[in-house]
Amino acid sequence: MGTAGSGRLGDVKETTAGRPPLIPSQEPTMSYSSLSGRVAVVTGAASGMGAATAKLLAANGAAVALLSRREDRLKELAAEIGAAGGRALAVPADVTDQRSVDGAAERVAAELGRVDLLVAAAGVMLPNPVDDGRIDEWTRMIDTNVTGVLRVVRAFTGDLVATAAGGRTADLVAVSSIASHVSFPNYAVYSATKAALTHLATSLRSEFGPRDVRVSTVEPGLTDTELGAHIDNPSLGLDGQLGAMFDAIGPLSAEEIADVIGFTVSRPRHVNLRHLVVLPTRQA
Ligand SMILES: NC(=O)c1ccc[n+]([C@@H]2O[C@H](COP(=O)([O-])OP(=O)(O)OC[C@H]3O[C@@H](n4cnc5c(N)ncnc54)[C@H](OP(=O)(O)O)[C@@H]3O)[C@@H](O)[C@H]2O)c1
C-alpha cells in the first residue's frame, strides 16, 4: 500500500493537456509532535484518505485503531505501521451495522483505552441519474455517509467528552466533500449525504464545542483514491466522466488530505480549524 490512490495520479502528471504539471513528486513531510500519545480511531482506514491519515497519525506517535470492512487491508496496514515503529490495531467493522460498531468500540476500549481523536472518513460515492431510481445506492450512501458517521460518533462521544473534561485535547474530524456545496449532474444523492454531514458537524460543534471537544469538517475536492472504483455506470466512472475530471484537473493525493487533517488536530486545544475546503488548485 505504498500509495493510497487508485493509480490515476501518475497518469495525470503526464497527460494534463497542454500545461506543465502542477503536482510535485514528493509527498508532504510535515511532522506534528503534539500527536504523540493520543489514541485515535480512523474509519475508512482500509484505503485512501483514511489509510493515509492513519499512517500519518501513527508516524507522529498516536496509537491508531483502523476501522473498515476489509480485514486483510487493515491487517496489512497495521503491520506496515508496526514495522515503521508505530502502533495500530486492525478492527474490522461495518459502519452501517450497529452491532459491528458497538463491538469495535468495545475492542478499541479494551486494547487501546480512551479515544481522544476520531476521524470519520468511511464513505461511498455512487453517482447515477436520479431517473434510474437506484434506491440500493441511495440507501447505501445514506447509511454509510450519514447514519454511519452518527453511529461512530455515538460510540466514541463519551470518550471524547471525558478526555476534554480531563483537560486534554479531544477531536472529531468529519470528512465531508466539496460536493456538499456544488451541484454536479448525477451526484444528487451523494451531494445530499455530504451536505447533511457538513451540517451535522456544524450542529455537533454547538453541542461539543462548549465542552471543549473540537469538531472539524474537512471537505476535499478531487483526490486520487479508490472512491471512484465502485461506480457501476461506465460513462460516469474512471473511464468516463470521473476519469475526464482527473485528466483535466489533476487530483490531490490522499497523503495531502491526511497532512491537512494532521495539521488541524495538532493545533493547541483552544484553536479550532472548524471548516476546511481543500481543493486541487485547478478545481474551480
Ligand atoms: N476521493 C475524493 O475525490 C473525495 C472527495 C471528497 C470527499 N471524499 C470523501 O473522503 C472519504 C474517504 O474516501 P476516499 O476518497 O479515501 O475513498 P476510498 O479509498 O474508497 O475510502 C473509503 C473507505 O471507506 C470504507 N468504507 C466504505 N463503506 C464502509 C462501511 N460500510 N463501513 C466501514 N467502512 C466503510 C472503505 O473500506 P472498506 O471497503 O474496507 O469498508 C474505504 O477504506 C469519503 O467519505 C469520501 O466521500 C473523497
Automatic annotation (TrEMBL):
It comes from the Bacteria. PROSITE patterns: ADH_SHORT. Keywords: Oxidoreductase. Residues 1-31 are annotated as: Disordered. The keyword Oxidoreductase applies. The keyword Oxidoreductase applies. It holds the Pfam family adh_short. Residues 38-225 form the Ketoreductase domain. Belongs to the short-chain dehydrogenases/reductases (SDR) family. This is SDR family oxidoreductase. The lineage of its organism: Bacteria, Bacillati, Actinomycetota, Actinomycetes, Kitasatosporales.
